[in-house]
Design brief:
0% helix, seven-stranded mixed beta sheet, mainly beta, four-stranded antiparallel beta sheet
Length: 119
């Protein structure tokens, strides 16, 4: 059974930092592309950052220079370090895993963790 479990969300003030974690099980983590998405109220879910199995990263323009995605294959975990948080970063953040095994693609989502940035 595949599980992606996010943690680390919370209520913070503008300018603060948070580190989100996603613990994965039931997948071959080392070959999976991992990503963080977010969904704000009334908006579509959007990609925040992604990291390939080889460690290549990509970021949405609004978070470039503030957020850093990383992974630890030994711990089957992916992280999102969020610095200089802004009210517009408020959203539910979701962990995503996707890849291809034996010709079949897969994609899995976590349950989400709330991040609220407010003074």
């Amino acid at each position: 059974q595949v599980q992606l479990v996010e943690s680390g969300g919370g209520l913070v003030q503008p300018g603060d930092s948070l580190r989100l974690s996603c613990a994965a099980s039931g997948i071959i983590f080392s070959i999976s592309t991992m990503g963080w998405y977010r969904q704000a109220p009334g908006k579509q879910r959007e990609l925040v950052a992604g990291i390939t199995s080889g460690g290549s990263t990509n970021y949405a323009d609004p978070v470039k220079g503030r957020f850093t995605i990383s992974r630890d294959n030994a711990k089957n975990a992916v992280y999102l370090q969020m610095n200089i948080l802004k009210p517009e970063d408020t959203a539910v953040y979701y962990c995503n895993a996707n890849g291809r095994v034996g010709g079949a693609t897969y994609e899995h989502w976590g349950q989400g963790t709330q991040v609220t940035v407010s003074s």
